[in-house]
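Lab notebook: predicted structure, single chain.

Context: the supervisor wants predicted structures on file for every construct in the current expression panel, including those that have not yet been purified. This is the next one on the list. No modifications to the sequence; it matches the entry in the shared construct table.
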Amino acid sequence: MSESTFAIAPPPTRKRQRARKACIPCRQRKRKCDVQFPCSACSTYGYQCQYPPDEGPSAAFVDKSRASHMSSNSASSPFESSPAKVARTGRSERDETPESPKPAIDQGILDPVKTRYMGLHSVMAFPRNLGLEFQSANPPRVHSFAWNCGIRPEDGGSNHGNLKELISREEFEVYKRVYFETVNPVFGVLDKQDFSRMSDQFWSGSTDHSAFEANLAGVVALGSFFSATLGHPKELEIVKHAKDILEDPTISRRVSVDQVSAWLLRTLYLRLTTRPHMAWLASNIAMHLAEATGLHHEMDAMVLTTDDSSPQLVPNKSGCEQARRLFWLAWLSNTMISYEYGRSSSSLNNITCKQPASCKGDHTALLITVAQLIPRESLDSGPDLQHTLPKLRQIPDEHPFVAMTKADLCMCLYRHHRLLKLPIERREVLQIITIGNTATEAAYKLAQENKFWWNVLCTVFQYICVLLAIDTTDSLAQVATNMCTLEDIAGLLNTHVSTEAVNTLKILLRDSMKKKRQEVQLLEAADSDLNANAGSGLGSIENVDINWDALLDPWYAPTYLPREFGMGTEESVIMPTM
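Prediction complete. Output recorded below exactly as produced.
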């Protein structure tokens, strides 16, 4: 037989195998479906898995009796109030694939009526979960059933006045303008259009106390603080009024987005006026309220308990953007204050909230970018100055406050670096100096404009401390100029705190000089001892011609030393063995 008789025919070309009967959600999203019931994609993302009536999974892929049984159960999946159930997942479809499922515990549930967020595994959600699973006609609501024994009644609330009794409408408009000119471009807590509309409703009608009134009081307090004058005579009373509203049990029991923004405004005011502990506590409360209202998730990352939507959920595009801005501002404030203060920040699980877009005239996004450079690793590993400082310098100084915030982080990084006794390169020192000098100029600019943010004084003070700590020629050369700037800022402030800061730095500066003088005296004493020995007949050291190459280079033979040391003649030189 010929050789061609035994030739094996090439196998037929195989076409790509595709699932012929994908479920409806996978078809709509153009995702790979494994034709199970429910399929892995729907299980992962919480979709309602269903197949067209005439195209169910064939027997080769799944047991139809099992599919029928699971289909009946899927109609009563947790928190599904109707076939039009709003069920979304905690991951973007672009970022996740069915091959990398996340456990259901990562999902959250949001009550859109009361604006309460909690995990699907929470004690409040479990009774409703069971009711839906048992196909109850009226499943239990999401409620804190049996949370305690109910032996004592709840606090009935507190009595506090009305903001209209503390400030007039005309005064409010003045401080509102100052707030939106000075504070909101840096910390975009409020949407000006929405705030103006709701404040008009407040002043034109007689409304009960609400968290929004605390926002009104917070705006007045901050506007009063940044006024060129001494501010409103009842500023402290207005601040206390906002605090009383936020701590009123009848209001705080029902969380809302307005509470998040009000606590953020309170955090800013406390950071401007009082001690670090108070500001840190307020920032943690704001962060936890952001979680309680579900702001740390995108809307498609949560399961809703009902199909009804609440105005608090701000479904339009601009509203979603403001919700993102609010969450990241809560995160920013808590993270920065905690890092500066040396305390733990509030850590939330599974954050899916997107970062807010950068807008012209609004510098919130830049501040968030700065805060995201804070190292997440443990303190023991130390900050990575080599890579972090260049990234910090690349962030544009579009606003003086941004420049000062960059310097604040720079100083924090150096303090942690120094605590671990890690070496620092000259390149890194020069980068710190560049960032610090820019911040000092920005601080003086704001001081001249009577915009006394907390870091107008704090940043310059800490920068001079860092210059003294680095203790090199490059850093010490910057002390005089920055010290003069700090004294000028202190003169504009004319407060006990500013005077205390200047005096403290002068003490540190003098102690540094005293330490250096003592070191010089020790060296001079050593020099005197040598001269005394020379006078006793050992010869003057100034008359000795030392060949330092011979002393310091091991390749030189001992006989390379001068004859005055009596080490032999040039003829006895022994060349080193190569």
